Structures are given as structure tokens and as C-alpha cells.
Automatic annotation (TrEMBL):
Section of the entire sequence shown: 165 to 428 of 428
Spans traversing the lipid bilayer: none
Residues of the EAL domain: 24-264
Protein's name according to its UniProt entry: Diguanylate cyclase/phosphodiesterase
Amino acid sequence: YRIKQAGGGHAAFQRQQDQRTTIQMERLTALHRALERDELQLYFQPVVQAESHAVVAHEALLRWVRPTGVVSPLDFIPLAETSGLIVPIGRWVLQQAINALKARRISRVSVNVSALEIRQPDFVEFLQWILTETGVEPRRIWLELTESSMLEPRFAPVLQDLHALGVRTALDDFGNGYSSLMALTSLPIELVKIDRSFTAPIGEVTPSGQRALEVVRGIVALATALGLPTVAEGIETPRQAALLSQVGCTFFQGYLFGRPQPLS
Ligand code: C2E
Ligand code: MG
Ligand code: MG
Ligand code: MG
């Protein structure tokens, strides 16, 4: 009886797994179609100078605009990454972002890049090709990489090539990962983006708010010593901006200065 129970339980588990796989397959097909049907859209969020609040750049943030609503990248980037679809999607993103630069709709752009994209042997060549086609200056492009993917030593030569091309590289979500400090020593990074998990509690009159501010002060001191500017992500209140300005952040990004939105 007990064995039969266990067997029944396993069958139910298997059914659930199959169902989950089917749902994932359907989502993947839909995402594939999204790319073909132009359902993907780039939103742009301003990055401002900490002192003057002048807009210096925009971060390109992907959205999937479905008839049922707008889907967050957090809900489809992981699937795009595991399926490999991030490669054509990422190329579309780069193309769109650089087109916006060419049309002078924005002056600088920061583009998120997945590890799998960078791992393509022709990644640098592709970027070079769009830059040549469009005549856009490479200095106007920041590529945002997340630390865990950048830490792999085999990426160092690619980053060097990007550097040689004149494109700049940023370490995204700094502090929210494993061994993030090592990336600063071994890779040619030119900008540090401080993760929102550090900036969010700042301004709260709590011990963790106070500690977060001190941690950010330390990150900024470290970046400054390395000659690297910093972006504080996720600024939502004037109080956060004031405190982060005091600790010497170079740039701000967050709802206080503008939400991600399509270029009008
Ligand atoms: P990220 O690169 O760290 O982007 C910052 C995220 O913080 C964005 O979420 C942005 O909308 C959100 N944000 C900005 N300011 C605020 C604020 O003041 N408060 C709060 N609560 N959130 C704020 P989003 O647009 O949902 O993107 C999530 C992540 O998806 C990005 O994190 C990035 O890792 C990834 N992603 C987005 N677009 C692309 C893309 O084109 N390619 C790749 N590979 N990844 C992308
Ligand atoms: Mg980013
Ligand atoms: Mg980030
Ligand atoms: Mg992130």
C-alpha cells in the first residue's frame, strides 16, 4: 500500500513537471514570436549627474509588450538566457539602442549584456559592424555586465577588445554578487553601478539604513581610489539623493529622476 502511495505521488510529481515543461515551451514559442512580431520594445531610463541632475545617459531596458500587458525582463530574460534566444534578442537591443544614438534621440546609452552574448565569438565583430554602419562614436556606449558573468577569466580578452574598440564597460549590480571585488582588480572596468539593495534602505532612520550608507561610502571610496565613477541605482527620494551626494556618488538613476519609458 505504501509503495503504491509513493508510486502515485511520483506520477503526480511527473505530471506536474511535464506541465511545467509545457508551460515553459509555450512561453519560449511566444517569446520567439515576440521577436519576429516586434513585440519587444526598448524603454530608456535617465542617468543623471549627482551634482546638477543633468541627464548624461540613458539605460536601455527591455520590455515585452503583449496584448495582455507589459512583461518585465525579470520574467523573460532568464528563459531567453537558458534557451539561447538572448543572443538574437541582445543583437536587436544593441541595434535599437545604437539607432537611438544615431538619431540623436539620446546622447549616451547603457546596454545590459548577458554572459552568453559576450561569449559569442563574433560579439565584438558584430558591435564593430553596427558602429561602422551607423557611424556612431563607440564612446557613447556603455555595456553593463553583471559581475558573476564577468569574473570568468576567459572574458578578460573580450573586454580588452571592447576597450580597444572604444566601447566602455560598467560593472552592474555591484556588491550583489560573489567576489565582486575581484572583478575590479582583474578586468578593465570603467564604471561601477551600485546595486539598489544598498541604496534602498538609505534614508531610513534605522540601523540598517545607517549601515547601508556607510557601506556605500566605502564602495565609493574604493571606486574613487581606482579612478572609477559610480552610479547609485534605484534612487526614489530626495533624501536618498542628498545622502548619496554627500558620500560622493558621481551619477544617479532611479524613479526620482525618471522611470524607464519609450522614447517619445
Ligand atoms: P538592471 O540592469 O539592474 O536594471 C535596473 C532595474 O531597476 C530596472 O528594472 C529598472 O526599471 C529598475 N529601477 C530603476 N530605478 C528604480 C527605482 O527607483 N526603484 C525601483 N524599485 N526600481 C528601479 P527592469 O527594467 O525590470 O530590469 C530588470 C533587469 O533585467 C535589469 O536589471 C537587467 O539585469 C535585465 N535587463 C533589462 N533589459 C535587458 C536587456 O536588454 N538585456 C539583458 N541581457 N538584460 C536586461
Ligand atoms: Mg543594468
Ligand atoms: Mg543594475
Ligand atoms: Mg539587476
